[in-house]
Amino acid sequence: MSIFSLFRKQSSAPMARERLQVLLAHERASVGQSDLVAILREEILAVIAKHVEIDDEKVSVKMERGEHVTTLEVDIEIPVTVTVRAA
Amino acid sequence: MAKVVVVTSGKGGVGKTTSSAALGAALAQRGEKTVVVDFDVGLRNLDLVMGAERRVVYDIVNVIQGDAKLPQALIRDKRLDTLFLLPASQTRDKDSLTAEGVEQVMNDLKRHFDWIICDSPAGIERGATLAMRHADVAVVVTNPEVSSVRDSDRIIGLLDSKTEKAELGERMEKHLLLTRYDAVRAERGDMLKVDDVLEILSIPLLGIVPESMDVLKASNIGAPVTLADSRSAPALAYLDAARRLAGETVPMTIPGEKRGLLGKIFGRRAA
């Protein structure tokens, strides 16, 4: 222990604590959300598939967490020669 | 009624196997019939830490596949006749553990033991999820270090969703076992403190095991920490933790915090 370390103010543990708190707040929320996205994808697909034929591969559901709002982006490709079953 | 305890952490190298052996031995030292089950198929080490590596004939995979009966695979400890080990297979891959097979083994063990301690492998794959699957109580082993705390948080999430208890809508009892704790470094602000980790993970504390040479010494000689030297600091911490696990109220002590002046000087120099 040198004399200089007496003047050293910055200890590392508080930084570890803060980083963990921020990270885990995010991770706890997003673990739940990855399930939510999967559920939404499945249910949205089911609803649309009732009316139009769609390719499972050509569907993308994304959720983006912003600072104030979260946006849900649903991108579904519908072929031109689609057969509309029921209007 | 048998109690099934899973010792888990997510992260490797934090002390799951050491803690499983020490808690298992501590419970057996109380006269309760205890079995420690190694779930780390392919990388077994509990046999080595408990000093039974030369006595392994059959393992849990042999029992699941019907090549051996459960009593043939159980190894009784040479020092404590209430302590048993069910080793993992070293040669098979981890897929040889099946959900049905593990369930059958656990049901059989429950009929013969007071305590079943499941030593989980690291990670969140099959071995780890099967080890926690049938647990009544979870001991989450955590080091006061960022990556270990993060992985413990993830494991707590799995304990609350992927276990039998969780699926039945019951509450899984979870306890934090803080290992490799250095009170001097924590006091200096260079290590997360007990309260920091407790606040972040918000599960009750089972015990604080100090960083100690005695842990390595115990594994060198192949004895659970509590049997190698029952008066060493980590042994006392594990003995207290086992008493809490059994439902006793034991005051919590932070090992190494009550030092004399000399202890303080030497403690700091050594750290």
UniProtKB/TrEMBL annotation, chain A:
Which Pfam families does the UniProt entry name for this protein?
Answer: MinE
InterPro entries found in the cross-reference section: MinE (IPR005527), MinE_sf (IPR036707)
| The keyword rRNA processing is annotated on this UniProt entry | no
Domain of life of the organism in this record? Bacteria
Q: Does the keyword Cell membrane apply?
A: no
Q: Name one GO biological process term.
A: cell division
Tell me the keywords, alphabetical order: Cell cycle, Cell division
> Into which family does the record put it?
Belongs to the MinE family.
Q: What does this protein do?
A: Prevents the cell division inhibition by proteins MinC and MinD at internal division sites while permitting inhibition at polar sites. This ensures cell division at the proper site by restricting the formation of a division septum at the midpoint of the long axis of the cell.
Report the protein name in the record: Cell division topological specificity factor
- Organism name: Mycoplana rhizolycopersici
Q: Which gene encodes it?
A: minE
From TrEMBL, chain B:
Key word Cell division present: yes
Which domain of life does the UniProt lineage start with? Bacteria
Keyword annotations for this protein, in alphabetical order, are: ATP-binding, Cell cycle, Cell division, Nucleotide-binding, Septation
**InterPro entries noted in UniProt:** CobQ/CobB/MinD/ParA_Nub-bd_dom (IPR002586), MinD (IPR010223), MinD_FleN (IPR025501), P-loop_NTPase (IPR027417), ParA/MinD_ATPase (IPR050625)
Its transmembrane ranges are none
* Start and end residues of each CobQ/CobB/MinD/ParA nucleotide binding domain: 5-224
- Can you state the subunit structure given in the record? Interacts with MinC and FtsZ.
* Job of this protein: ATPase required for the correct placement of the division site. Cell division inhibitors MinC and MinD act in concert to form an inhibitor capable of blocking formation of the polar Z ring septums. Rapidly oscillates between the poles of the cell to destabilize FtsZ filaments that have formed before they mature into polar Z rings.
NCBIfam families named in the record: minD_bact
PANTHER family the UniProt entry points to: SEPTUM SITE-DETERMINING PROTEIN MIND HOMOLOG, CHLOROPLASTIC (PTHR43384:SF6), SEPTUM SITE-DETERMINING PROTEIN MIND HOMOLOG, CHLOROPLASTIC-RELATED (PTHR43384)
As for family, the record states: Belongs to the ParA family. MinD subfamily.
The molecule here is called Septum site-determining protein MinD
Q: What is the organism of origin for this protein?
A: Mycoplana rhizolycopersici
